[in-house]
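Priority: medium. Attachment 1 of 2:
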């Protein structure tokens, strides 16, 4: 988006688009790996945490999540590294070996499974860095250009429980942006139904309430958090 703003004078004139230039971004590596046999995983998706010094990752068992792979004879997984700056120079094979090692540590069933095929894709500066102070520079869905609407997990002001860096929020804001287009065109289109997330578990709800209370106390005392 920053490249579009830099290259387009019409966007560069708008303060909300220029504010996007203040956002930082992170490198991403996406992998897809095929194994020679089916391996049952405890969860269809999970986090690979603590393996890389500066990068975090998630992995997905595509046999459980996508119809395309449901009947594959072997297991197919995808794994994505975020803040993968230091991993980009590695060869495809080195990255695949890392993924296999990390996943096998979390899911021992992969130990001994052989890789039959793999894909490694690199995306420099591909996702927003949700760092302290970045919120003020993130765009709203409705922009200063009447027929331009934003979608993605980086937009703010969307009243939905899917918050932060997530594919769920990207999906929800895509539906929401489409609904805004339908409303603007006013041609009788059928808006998409957007389901909210399930209510927080009691301990999560209590923690959120405590944080809100602390923020209110800080605001009353004239203190402003650097994380807002």
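Attachment 2 of 2:
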């Amino acid at each position: 988006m920053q490249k579009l703003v830099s290259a387009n004078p019409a966007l560069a004139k708008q303060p909300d688009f220029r504010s996007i230039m203040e956002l930082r971004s992170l490198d991403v590596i996406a992998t897809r790996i095929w194994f020679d046999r089916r391996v049952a995983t405890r969860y269809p998706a999970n986090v690979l945490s603590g393996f890389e010094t500066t990068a975090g990752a998630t992995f997905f068992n595509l046999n459980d999540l996508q119809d395309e792979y449901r009947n594959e004879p072997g297991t197919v997984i995808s794994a994505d590294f975020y803040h993968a700056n230091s991993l980009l120079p590695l060869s495809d094979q080195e990255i695949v070996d890392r993924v296999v090692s990390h996943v096998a540590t979390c899911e021992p069933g992969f130990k001994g499974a052989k890789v039959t095929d793999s894909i490694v894709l690199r995306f420099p500066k591909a996702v927003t860095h949700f760092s302290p102070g970045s919120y003020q520079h993130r765009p709203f869905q409705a922009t200063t250009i009447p027929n331009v609407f934003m979608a993605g997990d980086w937009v703010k002001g969307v009243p939905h429980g899917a918050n932060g860096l997530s594919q769920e929020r990207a999906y929800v804001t895509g539906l929401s942006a489409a609904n805004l287009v339908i409303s603007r065109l006013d041609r009788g289109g059928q808006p998409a139904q957007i389901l909210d997330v399930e209510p927080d578990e009691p301990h999560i709800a209590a923690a959120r309430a405590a944080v809100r209370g602390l923020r209110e106390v800080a605001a009353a005392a004239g203190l402003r958090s650097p994380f807002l």
